[in-house]
TrEMBL record:
Keywords: DNA-binding
Matching InterPro entries: DNA-bd_dom_put_sf, MerR-type_HTH_dom, MerR_fam
Protein name per the record: MerR family transcriptional regulator
Domain HTH merR-type intervals: 26-88
PROSITE patterns linked to this entry: HTH_MERR_2
Statement: the UniProt record of this protein carries the keyword DNA-binding: yes
Length: 232
């Protein structure tokens, strides 16, 4: 067995490779320092380095190593596939017990009135491919294409944010009442105006105040719609 690198306390926090080896060997008896270094060379884990060049593994690095070793041991997956899985996890997808990571079928929703926390970064941190979005939302490609044509779902580069799941799911439910994507452009226009109003107050960068104002505008919008509906 290769001699573990000495532990060094420096400006970079984390565990040395020797300590990581001991932690992993409790679960993966055949793992070695050479194997950890190989996984690093293959780009599956990228520990920080101290000023002297010693590796320092974070808790996230340790989790990634466990994921790789588990996938190799239990699913016999090649490193290329495991690397693709890790890339998907980095884009916000959820690790699956077996098979590749998957997008959530829907995003958490808070019952009752929306609060500022609903407008945090959780839904936008997801970066889904088109196929992942279709699978997560459970909608046909034709509906997604219509939503994109009318500017209701917009991709950022080659990926979609988590809000696209909710938009696609709600659009599918509205379609059951005869409302097609072309009928929903008024919602996009109203949302654009509300965002513009919020940015007049907070500026273009997302802040805690942005979330609070967004929650208030949604509450106001909901109350206005409710007040104009015929009473039973």
């Amino acid at each position: 067995m290769a001699k573990p690198e000495p532990s060094e306390e420096g400006p970079v926090g984390g565990r040395g490779i020797g300590e990581v080896l001991q932690l992993l060997q409790a679960e993966f008896a055949d793992v070695t320092i050479s194997k950890i270094r190989f996984l690093e060379a293959e780009g599956l884990v990228t520990p920080a380095r101290t000023g002297s060049g010693y590796r320092k593994f974070s808790a996230a690095d340790l989790d990634r190593l466990r994921y790789v070793l588990t996938a190799q041991r239990d699913q016999y997956l090649p490193l290329k596939v495991i690397k693709e899985h890790l890339g998907a996890i980095d884009r916000g997808l959820q690790p699956a017990a077996a098979g590749p990571p998957v997008a959530p079928s829907s995003l958490p929703q808070t019952p009752g009135q929306p609060v500022a926390e609903d407008f945090g970064a959780a839904s936008t941190e997801l970066r889904l491919t088109r196929d992942e979005l279709l699978a997560a939302a459970g909608v046909p490609p034709e509906l997604l294409a219509e939503l994109e044509n009318h500017g209701l779902v917009v991709a950022g580069g080659n990926h979609y944010g988590g809000d696209a799941i909710v938009i696609a799911q709600v659009a599918a439910e509205l379609a059951a009442y005869g409302l097609e994507p072309r009928h929903l452009r008024a919602f996009r226009t109203a949302a654009d105006r509300e965002v513009g109003l919020i940015e007049q107050v907070t500026g273009p960068r997302r802040t805690e105040q942005t979330g609070e104002l967004a929650a208030l505008t949604v509450r106001l919008h909901t109350a206005l719609v409710r007040s104009r509906l015929p009473r039973p």
